[in-house]
Amino acid sequence: MPFIECTEVTKTFRQGFWQKKSKPALQDLSFAVRRGEVFGIVGPNGAGKSTTIKILMGFVRPDSGQVVVDGRDATDPRSHQQVGYLPENPSLYKNLCVVDHLRFAARLAGLSATKTRERTERVLAAVDLSGSARLPIRRFSKGMTQRAALAYALLLEPQILILDEPMSGLDPLGRQLVVDLIRDYHARGNTILFCSHVLSDVERICTRIGIMHQGRLATITTPEELRALPLEPGQSKTPLETLFLRTVGGGQP
Q: Residue 31: beta bridge partners?
């Protein structure tokens, strides 16, 4: 059974002062994320990637279609008990340190003091923030804030990570750290779904890749299929860049 399953999901947003204009964000979107895989979604701005993530997390309701997470409807809070989530723009309390955030999350989850301490130390080391654990978030750079929010998503050791632009604001070292974390998390039998604009990272860590365009999943491919794509002599683009441009007609990821 897939961990995530979207079936003919449609979502339209109203725009304008009188809310008379409508803009389709998703149109009959269907895909599934299998347990134990790394599924990456790429697409141009406005393709519907973030809307898809918000619907999966239950923040936005679809107009039609079915969304199932861990065997339950995405609107059921129990469907997210095994989900760790990283939003595109994390919003942490500026006057608190990252340890305070993690302890708060652990207390809500009912973890013992011993488990809270062990997991806090582990995730802070994993995101390379042990030395900054007591600094208030207001003193963090964008990249450090991104890594702090990732620690928050990892704290309860969920079976699936849902990450919206996890590389946002990270320097090359930070990007490599996140790539290594995803690979390690996957190697332990867990599932990852993430959206990214960084095609090179998607290409090297995903087991399957979906390209979104105009609210639909235009195609799904694998690294093996990408390597088999015929390339023109002297072409400098990667196989995923080539397929992306062919699919969206030259749009930017």
A: 6
Q: What 8-state DSSP symbol labels residue 97?
A: B
Q: How many helices (H) and strands (E) does the chain have?
A: 8, 10
**C-beta of residue 49 within 8 angstroms of C-beta of residue 41:** yes
Give CA angle at 188 (210, 130), nearest 5°: 100
Q: Are 189 and 36 in contact (CB under 8 A)?
A: yes
Q: Is 108 helix (H, G, I), strand (E, B) or coil?
A: helix
Q: Which tens digits make up the pLDDT trace of 101-110?
A: 999 999 999 9
With both helix axes pointing from N to C terminus, report the angle between 113-126 and 142-154 in degrees, rounded to the nearest 10: 140
Please classify residue 187 by burial: count the beta carbons closer than 10 Å to its beta carbon, then call 0-12 exposed, 13-18 middle and 19+ buried: exposed
Task: Note the pLDDT tens digit of each residue in 144-189.
Answer: 999 999 999 999 999 999 999 998 889 999 999 999 999 999 999 9
If DSSP codes are grouped into helix, strand and coil, which group holds residue 9? strand
Q: Which residues pair with 97 in a beta bridge?
A: 136
Distance CA(133)–CA(139), nearest Å, equals 11
Name the 3-class secondary structure at 34: coil
Q: Which residues contact 159 (CB under 8 A, 6 or more apart)?
A: 3, 35, 70, 82, 83, 190, 191
Task: Classify residue 136 by its DSSP letter.
Answer: B
- What gap in Å lies between CA 115 and CA 70, rounded to an integer? 25
For residue 95, give the DSSP letter: T
Q: What's the pTM value of the predicted model, to 2 decimals?
A: 0.91
Do the strands 216-221 and 83-86 form a parallel or antiparallel pair, or are they unpaired?
A: unpaired
